[in-house]
Amino acid sequence: MRKRTTVIPLLALVTLALPAPATAQPTGTVTSGQARFQILSPTLVRSEFAGDRRFEDQATYNVVNRTFPRTPYTSRTENGWLVITTSAMTVRYRVGSGPFRADNLEIKTAGTTASPWRRVVCATGQLCEAEDQQREGMLVAADHPGHTGYGFVAGFSYANNSVTATVRAATAGRHRVVVKYANGQGGDGRHEDRTLGLGVDGQAARQVTLPRTTDWRDWRQAEFEVDLTAGEHRVSLTRRSGDSGNVNVDSLALLTAGQAYPAERAVDDCRFGTTCEAENGRISGPATIADEHAGFAGTGFVAELRGGTTLTQRVTSVPAAGTHPVVLRYANGAGGDGKHEPRTVHLNGQAVTLPTTANWATWATATAQVALPAGTSDLSLTCPDAGCHVNLDSVGLASTAQHVALGGYRRSLDGYTGTNGDPKLYPGLTHRDGWYLLDDTISALRNGTPRADRGAQPYQDGYLFGYGQNHKAALGDLAALTGGSKLLPRWAYGVWYSEYIDRTAADFRDRILPAFRQHGVPLDVLVVDTDYKAHNLWNGWRMDSSKFPDPQGFLDWAHGEGLHSTLNIHPSIQGDDPDFAQAQATAKGKLAKGSCANCYVFDWGDPDQLRAYLELHRKMPTDFWWLDWCCDGSGSSLRGVTPDTWINEQYSKIGAFAFSRGFGSLQAGGYSGAGPLQTGPWAEKRTTLHFTGDTSSTWGVLKGTIAYTSAEGVATGMSNISHDIGGHNDTTGLRGSETYLDNGQVRYTTKMPDDMYARWVQLGAFQPITRLHSNHGDRLPWQYGPAAQASATKFLNLRERLVPYIYTLAEEANRTGVPMVRPAWLEHPGSPEAYSTADSQFMLGSDVLVAPITTPGDVGETRVWFPPGQWTDYFTGRVYQGNSWATVSAGWDTMPVFLRSGGMLVERTSDVANDVKNPADELTVHVTAGAKGEFTLYEDGGRKLSSRTRIVQDGDTVTVHPARGWFPGKVSQRDWTVVVHEADGTSRTVKAAGKPAQQKVVIRLR
C-alpha cells in the first residue's frame, strides 16, 4: 500500500523591502501623474494611486496574476479628464485631482454610471466614523446600542488589528485625537484598562490607554495629543504585540484645543449622474442605519425616518442649473405609528409622496424633479415633525441604477435554523448594475510580506469590474486575477460519509463499509470526526490507540478499498497535553492562553508558532485535514492576509487540499455571526472547499441551501461548497438506530422524518460536494424506511454515476471562474424570471436545471420557470417549452431535473462502489432528439496529464472525438451508450460496440 509522508513546510518571513520606482510600463498601462491604470480585459481595469509615485508591480496575496491577453482600448484627455475606453466600459479620471474619490473617478458600463471609489477624509472638527476608514483584521459590528453610523469597529483581539483614519489638519500645531470607545469584559475574560498603539503617518506608535467602561454599551471618550503639519495625515490605532486590545471603537475626531466632540460626520461626495447610498450621507435626528431587511443596496439603509430627521448628500458636478430627476429607493411598510399609508418627505423643501410597499422587505422607487444649482450644493431630505416612517436605501441623481448585490457569502451558516430569518450574506462580485470595486490596497505581497508603508502619502490599489450583464466575464476576470476555485481530486466529488459520533477503525472496517457494500450504496470519502483523539476529544493531537491502534494501517486499508479519509482538527492545545511541552518549545514559548479552560492557541502569522502547529499533525496520517475552526482562539497576526486564507494554504501543502471555513476568521466575529475580513472572497477559493458549518435539520434550511450555494458561487467564484447534507443539529427528537455513551448515559441517535431525509439526499446529489453529516444523527439510507431507503440509495448512486460530469464542471470552474452550481440568471441575465427563482431552482452547468422539492409529504411539488429553449424531465421524459412556468410534482423516487435541448449529460453507464477503483470505461450520454450541441468531457491522471473528449450531436448523429495524446491509463476500451429523449416524452437507447478509447466513434441515432 502507498505510505503517506507528511511534509511540514518551515516558513520564514521575508525582509521588508521598498518597491523599486516604476519603470517603463507594457502596453495596456496608462499613467497620469500619481494615477496609473492597467487595462487587463474589456471588463477589468486596475486603478492605482500613489502619492509618492511608487507604483506596485509585485503580485499580492490576493492578486496573483495580472498577465491577461492584450485588450484593445483607447485613451485620450479631454476637458481635463483622462478617458479610457474598452469595448465594455469607460473609465474617467480628472487629471491631477489627487486620490480617487466619488468626485473625480467614474466608470460607465452598459448604461450605468458609477463612482466606485469612496474616500472619506475627516477634517478638523468632523466626526470620523471608524467603519468608514481603512480596517485591517477587524469586522464592523452593530450589536451594542449607542454607536453612531452603521456600526463600530469591534475587537482589536489580535496583533496588527488596526483602524487607520485619513484626517486633514487645517493648521499646523498641537491637535487632540479623541476616540469614542467601549471597554467591557473582553473575550479573554478580563475587564480592565486596555492599551493600543497610536501612530501618525507610519511612524513608531506610542502606547495609549483606554480605561474600562461599565460594559459594552457604555461609550466614552479618550483623548491624546499629537503634533501635525497642515494637510492630510494617517492616524492609526493598532494592537501591537505589547498591547492588550479587546476594545470597540465607534469613531474618532481630530480637534483643536477646546473643540467639543462633533456630531457632523465626514462623508464623501455624491456625484451627479450616479446613485449614492443613503447610509453614506450626513444624518441628523433620530434615524438610525440598519440592515435587517434584505434587498438593500450598499451596506444598509436609513431606518424608519422619524420627525426631525435630516439626510444630507453633498452633490457635485451638476452640469447646469435647473430641475433634475432625483430617484429615491425606499420601503414603506407598517410604521412605528401603526399606520401603513403613503408618506411624505421633503427634498430641498419640495414635498414628495412615497406610496406604500407590501412590507419592509419590498423596495420601490419614486422620482421627483428637484431644482439644483450648477456645480456643488447640498441635497437635503427632511421629515415633517409627525415623521415619514419610511426606510431610505439610496438617492439617485439623474440615475436609476441600483447597486444591489446578486448573491452573497458568509464564513459559516452556524446556527441557521431556517425559521430564524435568512442569514445575512455579505456582497461579493456580482451586482444588478454591473460593476464592482475590488479594493486590494491593504493586502500583503504574495509572499505574505506587508506592503511598504508610505507615511503620509495616500495610496490606493483597486480593480474596477465593469461587466454590465456579462456576469460570466466578471467571474472569469476574477479567476484569472486571483486564481480559480481549486480543482479537487476527482474522488472528492463522489459520496462522503461523515458523522459527529464516536467511531473506531474497527467500526469503519467491520460495520460501516460492509453496510455500504451490502446495501449497494457508493462511498468515496470517510470523515473521521473529533472523537478519535486521545487526551482531549476536542483538541488532542494523537489518535486514541484504543480506537485506532494502527493509524497508518487504517489509512492503508481505506486506500485499498478505494476510499480516502480526513481527520477533524480543532486549532488549540491543552496545557496538560503530552505534546504541549514540545509545541511550546518549538514556538519558543510564545503560545498564549486561550479563552477555553487551560488551552493555548496559535498565532499562525508567527513562523515559530506555525511550525509548532503543523508539527503536531505529524503523528496522524491522513489524506487531507478538516480544519473545523469554529470556537478556538487561534488566528494570524500577518498584516494584509486573512487568517482563513493563510492557514488553508498551509494545509494544502501537507494534504490534497484544505477542508475548512472560508472568507475571514473568527477573530472577526462570533460563532454564529462570523463575517468576512475584507480580502476573504478574493483569495480563499484557491486552496479549499468551503465547509459551511452547523445548520439545523429543518425544511427551511433545506430550502435555504438552494439559494445559498449558487449565491456564494457567483459572489466569490468559490465552486467547492460543502453543506451538511441532512443538516447538523436535530430538531425532531425522533429516535435513531444507534446508541452511544454521553457522560456515562446511554443515548440514541436521532433521525429526520423519512420525507425530509429523502428530499435532502436528492438535493445533495446535485450539490458541489455530497457529504452526509450530522450531530449524532442517522444519515445512512438503511437507517430509514423502505421508501426513503430506496430513494436515497437511488440518488446516491446517481451522484456517483455523475462524477465524470461533475468533475468536468469543476475543471471548468477552476479555469473559467463559473461555478458548478449557478443561478439561472448567470445563463440568462436578460430574463427577470431568472432572478426571481434564484431561491427555488439552480443550474448544474449550463445544460441541467434542478428544482428540488422542499415540502413534506409523499408527493411534493414546486413551481418551475423554464429558461429559453426546450427542457426534458430527466426522470419522466416530459417536455417543457422555455420561457414558461409549470408546477412540477414528484414522489420520492424522482425530483424535478431537466436537460436542455442541445445539452448533454454524461454519466457512468452502471452503478459503481467508488470512483477510484472503477475506470470510467462505460459512459452514457443523454441527448434530446434532433438537437445540435456539444460537450467536452475532462479527465486527468493526477500528474498534470489530462484529456478532453469532445462529444458532438448533429441531429441524428453523435460523434465522439477522443483527445489526442494522453488518455486515462486504466481505460483502454470504452463503451458508449446514448439515451435519446424524444419530444413525446419517450426515450430510446442506442449502444455503440466497445472500441479503443482513443478511437473516434460515430453513433447513428436512427
From TrEMBL:
GO terms for biological process: carbohydrate metabolic process. One of its GO terms (molecular function) is hydrolase activity, hydrolyzing O-glycosyl compounds. CDD domains: CBM35_Lmo2446-like. Gene3D superfamilies: Galactose-binding domain-like, Glycosidases, Golgi alpha-mannosidase II. Keywords: Glycosidase, Hydrolase, Signal. Transmembrane segments: none annotated. SUPFAM superfamilies: (Trans)glycosidases, Galactose-binding domain-like, Glycosyl hydrolase domain. Belongs to the glycosyl hydrolase 31 family. This is Carbohydrate binding module (Family 6). It comes from Lentzea jiangxiensis. The lineage of its organism: Bacteria, Bacillati, Actinomycetota, Actinomycetes, Pseudonocardiales.
